[in-house]
Amino acid sequence: MRKKSELPVKQCAHCTLPFTWRKKWERDWGGVKYCSERCRRAARPAAGEGDAS
pTM (2 decimals)? Predict the structure, then answer.
């Protein structure tokens, strides 16, 4: 068992806060960019935004 302080840390692409490795991200840690689902949704532009037609 590893100590929490020994786990890998990344910085969220949206809120820029640091977050640590989680068991559910074990298979895709290299592809994880956001600390939460909320940040992931907020980082994407909303569908239809910017269309004035």
Answer: 0.71
Q: How far apart are the first and last CA of the chain?
A: 57
Copy the structure tokens of residue 29: 């840690």
Q: Report CA-CA distances (Å) from 3 to 6, 43, 48, 50.
A: 5, 31, 45, 46
| Whole-number pLDDT of residue 4 | 80
Please indicate whether residue 32 or residue 44 has the higher confidence score (pLDDT). 32
> CA-to-CA distance for 6 and 38, rounded, in angstroms?
26
Q: How far apart are CA 33 and CA 7, in angstroms?
A: 16
